[in-house]
Amino acid sequence: MEAAWVLTNIAASDYTLLVAESGAVPRLVELLGSPNANVRHQAIWCLGNIAADLPSCRDILFDHGVVTPLLSQFREDMKIPVLRTAMWALSNLCFGKLPAEVQVKPILEIVSQLIHSADEKILADACWTVYYLCGGVDDAIQDALDAGVCPQLVNLLMHASSSVLLPVIMALARISAGDDAQVQVLIENGILNCLAQLLGRNYPKNIKKQACLIVSNIATGSKDQIQAVIDASIISPLIVILKTSETDIKKEAAWALSNAASGASSEQIQYLVSRGCLEPLCNVLTYQDPDLVYTCLEGLENILQAGEAGKKGEEESETNPYAQFILESGGLDKLEDLQDVNSERIYGLVMKLLQSYWEEEVSESDDPNIPGSNDSADSVETTSEDAAQPPAPASVADEAE
């Protein structure tokens, strides 16, 4: 045990890789089967420190078959300090892309139980593990849902501790990037009502950013899923965020509102407009993000088409009310400015809108030649999830008994 403790300390320093390459790993894995509980605990701790370092360190651990003996440590009679160390080590091991031969379901079976833990450290590391798996393993989102993690993760959105709430909402954001059926599981478990509370209250910026991302992912789904967003009264908080928050949160809220507008029905568009979405959507047209601007344009096109259909329903009405509002709120000027954008697809959609709804207002002299396409302008990275690091290895001196 003392020898393992020495290696644990060295593995927590700048010499982690040296420990992993020195031949310690197979012996440490072997010690996971020791009849002595203290020896097993120290081996788990050392392996956790190794797993928290470089991908090459984790590769060495996988090469020596660490997963199965580590999972065997999780027992009902485990003391809380040992369970904390084991869960922390497992979460570090799951950071990054796992080898194809690693079975995810046994890991999720354990994690699905530990996300009910009353211990915040165990709870946080269990949620980080879900987050890592859903981003680093093919089909892991469905495996996580099959393991039954969704109801408890949604419940944990109301947890008081930010150290728990952050991995919870990041795990749910990863799940919300799944297909419509997987997203529907989140909706049926009440995630939208929880998100409405998170968006409407004074939560930290990184929490609100992830909440907007989840709404954005849901809003890319079916009209029924867009309606679920509307029914949860999330649109108004999104608009407030678009008007008042920092730029990076505004951007996520803009994605959510643009996605909702792009796929909404006429009745849903009427609701979005009634809540005041047009002016903030027009402001999105000034963002330096071609993919977001294009999605916003698609949303505005859908809104304008609904306004055109509504115009036909009004007796003797020749004015598209949504086009008129965009004109009066300065949105037309922003559209005209986009004629100079170095993106062929944005230019094409802008010209389509200008010629369809404001032909009289736009003079022919305002129409420039189509600029040459620039692939780099159309391929801006839009992923919003910050790269999460594994939880920092616990100090040996702090936890030594």
TrEMBL record:
Any one biological process term the GO annotation gives: protein transport
Record has Transport as a keyword: yes
Record bears the keyword Transport: yes
ARM repeats by residue range: 23-65
SUPFAM superfamilies membership: ARM repeat
Residue segments, region Disordered: 360-401
A Pfam family that the UniProt record links to this protein: Arm
Entry keyword set: Protein transport, Transport
Listed PROSITE patterns: ARM_REPEAT (PS50176)
Cited Gene3D superfamilies: Leucine-rich Repeat Variant
Polar residues composition-biased segments: 371-386
Top-rank taxon, per record: Eukaryota
Similarity section: Belongs to the importin alpha family.
Protein's name in the database: Importin subunit alpha
Phylogenetic lineage: Eukaryota, Viridiplantae, Streptophyta, Embryophyta, Tracheophyta
